[in-house]
Amino acid sequence: MEHFQQVEPFDYVIFGATGDLTMRKLLPALYNRLRMGQIPDNARIIGAARSELDRAAYVARAREALEHFLPADVFNSGLVERFLGHIHYVTLDSSKKGAQWDSLKTLLAGADPDRIRVYYFATAPQLYASICENLHEYGLITPRSRVVLEKPIGTNMATATAINDGVGQFFPENQIYRIDHYLGKETVQNVLALRFANPLMNAAWSAEHIESVQITAVETVGVEGRAAYYDTSGALRDMIQNHLLQVLCLVAMEAPDSLEADAVRNAKLAVLNALRPITEGTAAAETVRAQYTAGVIDGKNVPGYLDELGKDSTTETYAAIRAWVDTPRWKNVPFYIRTAKRSGRKVSEIVITFRPAATAMFGATPASNRLVLRVQPNEGVELRLNVKNPALDVFNLQTADLDTPIRMEGGMPFPDSYERLLLDAVRGDPVLFIRRDEVEAAWRWAEPILDAWKDGKVPMQTYSAGSYGPEQAVRLLAEHGDNWHETAE
User: Fold this and answer.
1) Residues 263 and 373 both lie in one domain
2) Glucose-6-phosphate dehydrogenase NAD-binding domain: from which residue to which, for each copy (predicted)?
3) Sign for the pseudo-dihedral over CA of 71, 21, 409, 86
4) Distance (Å, rounded) from C-alpha 218 to C-alpha 292?
5) What is the pLDDT of residues 179-211, one digit of tens each?
6) Would residue 169 count as lying in a domain?
7) Is there a single domain that holds both residue 144 and residue 272?
8) Which of 6, 248, 423, 481 would suit a FRET pair with 277, their CA atoms being 20 to 30 Å apart?
9) Is 73 known as a binding-site position?
């Protein structure tokens, strides 16, 4: 705990305080930061939502959420009660004007005017601008206020621009924190350490030595209760346009001058701007989209997407894209990006396949080295090397895996990705948040793919629940002699 520094006193106002995100992620994350000694005694967490609740009723809901979502080994009843003492609640329809805002204003007025205020929008994105307008109208924006925007920032370039313009009317860019929880994952941040703190890796990190890159985030669950929302989004909007493109940027970017926010974000932006456009004419060759049908996962029969949705749909639950970063470092190196619901496994990982050794001394070409960064589960780094087979007298090769888990000191639980991000907003450190020009660059690249799919330029494929995806995605890699990681053992 001595490694964790307490932040300044703050008021954390969460709009959408009764929603699933707040109960499942935000409150447990803030509890864990209190447990680590980072939250001062006079900090306040203020929930704001339309539900007609008094403080006691909201605290009871929060206690129930902590009991349900916190692991048993970090749940401490005494600490929970201490944490709940920080919580306040106001009934507020944040999209409307009216006397309800006076309750929030009165609550905030009781604190030091120089106190840090963080407004977290755990609401529908179309409400962001109106909430900001109300914060301005009721005099709740101070020089030390920050606003945290949850994804998605729009469903296309036009809606993203409208959201950014609406929020930007009342908050300058340096007070806007667009959260991407993937950037809060320790293994994702470790891409920077692995690349730039290790001369061995840094020297090999280019097209000269790397054959291909795979970025995968797949899960065994379906859309369940989120079917109505998911059908308006789909796999590309939900995962690739934001989370996985950010991971690609960390893998592909040039070394920033420092770890200062703008240095890192400038380096990421350069990658987004260097992505080769995928047009209506190339989408069929570079992308695959699919929906899952009925299948078996963990021995249980599960329905197909259309059965869960209860209607026909052209929304993809699987997306695979072959991307190209047109810089000298990555000339002719394919980046394969993949996400799926109802996959045969749950995993998020980055796989770097190195070019095979150009030598004939072993008779056959040695297998390619592979570096695997496991983001989840079982966070760690695996490096596949060629070694001599000790069971044979002749000099034959076999592969060996150097597998190193990433663990916290003292056996402490791995922090949830929201934990650091929530307090980074208090600290005023935006390095792991997304700048507006990054959002726009990502949409410029992704929107033509969505348009091509909408116009039927790329056929909708199917894959059985519990499988690894459609055959067309296997062919996408086979065209360059590559294989998905799970089939390349």
Assistant:
1) yes
2) 13-190
3) negative
4) 13
5) 998 898 888 888 999 999 999 999 999 999 999
6) no
7) no
8) 481
9) no
Whether residues 206 and 116 fall in one domain: no
Q: Is 457 annotated as a binding residue?
A: no
Q: Is 421 within the bounds of a domain?
A: no
Residue 238 annotated as part of some ligand binding site = yes
Residues 127 and 56 in one domain: yes
Q: Which of 136, 243, 480, 485 is catalytic?
A: 243
Q: Which pLDDT tens digit goes with each residue over 126-145?
A: 999 999 999 999 999 999 99
User: Are 115 and 188 within one domain?
Assistant: no
Rounded Cα distance between 39 and 414, Å, is: 19
Total number of domains constituting the chain: 2
Query: Taking a C-beta distance cutoff of 8 angstroms, is the pair 148, 177 a contact?
Result: yes
Among 150, 168, 202, which residue terminates a domain? Answer: 150
- In this prediction, residue 409 carries a pLDDT of 61
pTM over 0.90: yes
How does 244-282 read in b/e, with b if 16+ C-beta sit within 10 Å?
bbbbbbbbbbeebeeeebeebbbbbbbbbebbeebeeeb
Query: Is 55 one of the annotated binding-site residues?
Result: no
Peptide bond into 125 cis (omega under 30): no
480 belongs to the catalytic site = no
Check whether 117 is labelled as a binding-site residue.
no
Q: What CATH number does the domain containing 253 carry?
A: 3.30.360.10
pLDDT of residue 402: 83
CB 278 within 8 A of CB 321: yes
Which of these ranges, 67-76, 185-194, 258-267, 355-364, has the smallest mean pLDDT? 355-364
- Count of Cβ atoms closer than 10 Å to residue 209 Cβ: 14
For residue 314, pLDDT over 50 is answered with yes
Task: Answer yes or no: is 420 a known binding residue.
Answer: no
Question: Residue 102 maps to which CATH number?
Answer: 3.40.50.720
Residues 304 and 394 reside in one and the same domain: yes
Among positive and negative, which fits the CA dihedral 422, 423, 426, 432?
Answer: negative
Q: Which domain range does residue 50 map to? A: 10-150
- What is the model's pLDDT at position 410? 57
Contacts of 228 (CB under 8 A, 6+ apart): none
In a domain, 352, yes or no: yes
Q: Is residue 44 part of a domain?
A: yes
What is the reported pLDDT for 113? 81
Listed residues 107, 134, 150: the one ending a domain: 150
Beta-bridge partners for 382: 372, 403
Same domain, 194 and 128: no
Q: Give the HSE-up count for residue 100: Cα atoms under 13 Å, Cβ half-sphere.
A: 17
| pLDDT surpassing 80 at residue 395 | no
